[in-house]
Design a protein that fits this description.
Blueprint (H helix, E strand, L loop, with lengths): L1 H22 L21 E4 L4 E5 L9 E5 L3 E2 L5 E3 L8 E10 L5 E11 L3 E3 L5 E3 L3 E9 L7 E7 L11 E3 L3 E4 L5 E8 L9 E8 L5 E9 L3 E5 L11 E5 L2 E5 L3 E6 L4 E7 L8 E6 L2 E6 L2 E5 L6 E6 L10 E4 L2 E5 L2 E2 L6 E2 L3 E5 L5 E3 L11 E5 L2 E5 L8 E5 L4 E5 L10 E5 L2 E5 L7 E7 L4 E7 L7 E6 L2 E6 L10 E6 L7
Parallel strand pairs: 2-7, 9-16
Antiparallel strand pairs: 1-3, 3-4, 5-6, 6-7, 8-10, 10-14, 11-13, 11-15, 12-14, 15-16, 17-42, 18-19, 19-20, 20-21, 22-23, 23-24, 24-25, 26-27, 27-30, 28-29, 30-31, 32-33, 33-34, 34-35, 36-37, 37-38, 38-39, 40-41, 41-42
Length: 500
């Protein structure tokens, strides 16, 4: 019995010692009871600095932005990253750089960057980079021979090589242009300013970069030297009383039967179609949001500049036929005068109405002081000027848009019917409709209320329309000494060197 008691006591002591050792955190385990060392099996994380896919211009210097690495045990492992692969910017192609890193436990991570070396040649659709001093904004179409997989941001700046003065002769409208991923076309705009000082030919030099090694200079000539009338390639169609607008580098011209798209860069017709609607021969056109609108016999039509299809947009509650002058200011179309049937002869109207493109609502404004239709009109700032026309008694007047008020201005005896007008800064050029071999033009100064005669060597036209492109005045109209439809198009420029 005694021996058994001793053995029992010994077993109890051993068990108590084990319990004691377990409770004091000795070599057995921690307080959770886990006495196993955990192995590091998590790989580091590599993060590229910059995009995983980059375009690089052929011949440029490629400087890699690198990468960073972080491990949950070893911490920052950026300095341990190795890079394999090469980029040869002298050869077009697709190159891969592989970034690798390992932690102290041997876990590896890798990531790749793709660099595409592209030729990135940029050409301008318009090779004749000459602008004439006036007041307008002109856009150049830039075309690249490649596309990027990400948005390319072009940075544009004015070079110190320019002789024309920024903010005095011109303004750079776009200092940055984004070419979306997958596209290769962009547009660069210059605002041309007008003054009365003759400066001759000046240069505007623009520098373009994209952050990927691309560099291009564009040289633009800015001129204010008078250019005598130049006859352009004849139109594909014959137009008795054409109405025309310019949208970008294209002229859209239409009359009672045809619609034509004419490329002013290549100087040729792109397309001509017969219209689905019988547009009146006495109408006018204006552009809004890049589309061509015609107002004819009290109805507003939209002609799509791409398809040349015609769609009836709206009909004025006030029927006006033979309305030959409309203008767009902001989001509103203004219609002036017209011919109203009151008897077998009819009479002209003083009516002024507007159409709001945003809400499609027609409104009637304060009527003109003088009945007229077939006058010439132009917009200068917040004012609309209307000159002559049938029944006008050679009068001219101006409409203050904000005040909704008409007032007479100085008039000339030579103001007639179906003249056409173009605004150039503070001036309005009136091209007189007549069948002679003398091109008769009046320049009206809107600030001093003074007319001046301009004598140009060129054939006059009757039933014509006009617009401005690159600062030059373009005139499309009937032949001189002709009562038949014709296809003439000419341009001219009256510079600061002209002596009145």
């Amino acid at each position: 019995m005694k021996g058994n008691l001793c053995w029992s006591y010994l077993r109890f002591a051993v068990l108590a010692a084990a319990v004691s050792l377990s409770g004091c955190g000795g070599s057995g385990s921690d307080s959770t009871g886990d006495n196993t060392n955990v192995a590091d099996s998590i790989a580091p994380v590599i993060t590229l600095i910059g995009s995983a896919s980059l375009p690089v211009t052929l011949g440029s210097d490629y400087v890699d932005q690198g990468a960073s690495a972080q491990d949950d045990v070893d911490g920052n492992l950026t300095s341990a990253i190795t890079v394999s692969g090469e980029v040869d910017t002298s050869q077009e192609g697709r190159y891969e750089l592989v970034y690798k890193v390992s932690d102290s436990a041997g876990n590896q991570a890798s990531v790749s960057r793709i660099i595409t070396v592209l030729s990135s040649i940029m050409v301008l659709r318009d090779k004749d980079l000459t602008l004439y001093e006036s007041y307008y904004t002109h856009s150049y179409e830039l075309n690249f021979d490649d596309t990027y997989e990400l948005d390319r941001v072009l940075s544009i700046s004015v070079s110190g090589l320019s002789t024309a003065q920024e903010t005095e002769d011109f303004n750079l409208v776009d200092s940055e242009i984004t070419v979306p991923a997958g596209e290769n076309t962009a547009y660069l705009s210059l605002e041309i300013l007008d003054d009365d000082d003759y400066e001759g030919e000046e240069s505007i030099v623009l520098e373009i970069t994209d952050g990927y090694g691309f560099y291009k200079e564009i040289f633009v000539t800015l001129d204010d030297t008078t250019q005598q009338p130049v006859a352009h390639m004849g139109l594909a169609g014959d137009y008795f009383n054409p109405v025309a607008t310019v949208v970008g580098d294209y002229m859209i011209v239409s009359d009672a039967g045809d619609v034509e798209k004419y490329d002013l860069v290549s100087d040729q017709t792109i397309e001509k179609v017969d219209s689905d609607y019988s547009l009146s021969g006495y109408a006018d056109a204006a552009s809004y949001n890049g589309q061509h609108y015609v107002f004819s016999e009290g109805v507003l039509y939209e002609i799509d500049v791409n398809t040349l299809s015609i769609e009836k947009i709206s009909e004025s509650p006030w029927y006006l036929e033979w309305t030959s002058e409309i203008q767009v200011v902001g989001d509103e179309l203004f219609v002036f005068g017209g011919h109203v049937e009151v008897d077998q002869f009819g009479e002209a109207s003083t009516t002024t109405v507007t159409y709001n493109f945003l809400n499609g609502v027609w409104s009637r404004k304060q009527g003109m002081n003088q009945q007229r239709y077939g006058g010439a009109s132009a917009v200068v700032d917040d004012s609309i000027y209307v000159f002559g026309g049938n029944y006008s008694s050679d009068t001219a007047e101006v409409y203050d848009i904000s005040a909704n008020e008409w007032s007479f201005i100085s008039s000339l005896n030579s103001l007639g019917s179906f003249d056409t007008a173009v605004r150039s800064g503070k001036y309005i050029y009136l091209i007189i409709s007549q069948e002679t071999r003398t091109l008769q033009i009046h320049r009206y100064d809107t600030e001093s209320d003074v007319y001046q005669d301009v004598l140009m060597i060129g054939d006059s036209q009757k039933y014509q329309d006009s617009f401005m492109y690159k600062g030059k005045v373009y005139v499309v109209g009937n032949d001189y000494y002709s009562l038949f439809a014709a296809n003439t198009l000419s341009s001219l420029y009256i510079g600061d060197d002209y002596v009145y």
